[in-house]
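Continuing from the previous page of notes. For each protein in this section, the sequence appears first, followed by its structure tokens. Read the first protein now.
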Amino acid sequence: MSYSKILIAVDSSEYSMQAAKKGFEMAHQLHAEVALLYVVDTSKALGNIDAGISAEQSLLVLKKEAEQTLDELAAMYDGDAVMKFMPEGLPTKDILKTATVWEADLIIMGTHGRTGLLHLLVGSVAEHVIRHSKIPVMVVPSK
């Protein structure tokens, strides 16, 4: 199978840096288009009334972090222009939605490597994407 459009799903973790590096490397080798995707997780846009921070202000901080991360990662790529997507929503749904709309051939993402109780409580975005994606998913391990 030939991959001509590679979508790299990232967040602001160090694991995303590894996934981006692998994705860029693969895009070079395959002469593929590449796009970075950072889903601004609206479920994390919680205000703190005691600190005087509204949910809207919290969302603005998350958006700024996403923009900064996308810009930093895009600057690492030495090929053609990198497309950047920054939808607001839930990563588990918006990664798959963006891959469909952009017509990606491959999704690349990192994993935090959570196990045990933490994995049970927090879940795994990568696991959800793997289970529900209609296209291949490459997961770059944390270790």
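Done with the first. The second protein uses the same format. Note its length before scrolling.
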Amino acid sequence: MSHNSQVTERNAQDSKAVSTHKFLIHHNGDHVGVATSPIAAGEKVVGIFMDDNSEVEVTSKGDVPLGHKISLVSLDKDEPVLKYGVQIGVTTEKWEVGDYVHTHNIKTARW
């Protein structure tokens, strides 16, 4: 995963800053995390990488409903999107870290 000033790796000493995670990342290097509870615009949220239990912190740029995606990286239009360590789609517009990711800014890689 490329590191961006808005995505911050966290360690055990930082855990008191935010009490619980609000999204999961399936694979280190994925471009998106999946909300495990609703995320409000402007909220600073913690995500957990499922493959190594490391954490990242992101400030959400929009409301992200439960089960929907949040961007962990900045991507230009027409770039591949990774989840589960594989390409799941292509961006349909530029993304910034913390953007709500859904059908308005991603299309499937299947067809």
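What the second structure shows: The mean pLDDT is 87. The domain at 8-108 is CATH 2.30.130.110 (Archaeosine Trna-guanine Transglycosylase; Chain: A, domain 4). We return to this in next week's lecture.
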